Amino acid sequence: MFRGSDGTYRDDPNAPLRRAGARGDIGLWAWGRADYPGLALEEGVLPGLLSTGLWEVTADQDWGLDWHLNEGVEVTFVTHGRVGFASGATQHELGRGWITVTRPWQRHRVGLPHVTACTLGWFVVEVGAQRPNQAWSWPPWVALPQADLDHLAGLLRGRDRTAWRIGAGMEQAVDRLELALRSPGQRATSRLGLRMSEVLLELVDVLEGEDVAADPYLTSAERTVEVFLAGLRTRVAEPWTVGSMAEACGLGRTRFTHHCRQLVNTTPLEYLTGLRMEHGLRLLAGTDATVADIALSCGYSSSQYFATVFRQHFDRTPLAARRAATRPPPADA
Question: Which domains, ranges and CATH numbers included, belong to the chain?
């Protein structure tokens, strides 16, 4: 499961990669935990490393890695070829000389929509945070002084950019990581830990070279609520209360409700109801699902209660809304 503060994406975004590797369509060298692809990392080996790997794609594919979140910070680089990458509304064509970093709450995808010929490497590291307002804690194997780790965390938390041009030092670091990923054997994971640490050290220089001041808003409680609300539309089926929404943001009910009003000018439950009604209307217009099933998809255990709320919101019944959506357009006069 790939979970973050702005939603839970239950479909495995790595499934197309895993299938392509199993078919032999691509070269794939990877280690991971849980649902991540590759050889399983043993307990106690590089704790906090969720995934690292390299793919070598020599021909354009018919798949991509769809929108998803990770449970840690992901660093991605390309050493040969080019591939599309998007985070939020920003798109890039990544090639050699680029690196991306996505935080746990940043939705992103690789392939626009499909993966093109390239050699791409990545690693995903837990930092003890799933929300913008949480402090970071790096795994013990990252071989940087604590002051540098704290500085790197501050640089990444105070910016929301996800892609950077890199210099020769970082290019050499990712080349060494690529070689380590291609060379399994004795002490392979020890080498990987050192090479990933090198990349993170070079990342400090990359970020310090950016003439942009850290934005305190990006680590604020209000930003955390903003991220949560942005992802709430993907989680309308969950049994939310004001208390559980506030808890998901690490806030008390009063403070959470205050920030919600500041951001969307309504109460949390009114905002949730609006999202649920929009979702229900889309399902009524675009699927053959029963009203009872649609009610469940919108977080209502009772189809009658769903119909009542729907009628209050749209001034029509769910069935009337479905008939209006499927009615043929009038003939030209």
Answer: 2-208 (2.60.120.280), 220-326 (1.10.10.60)
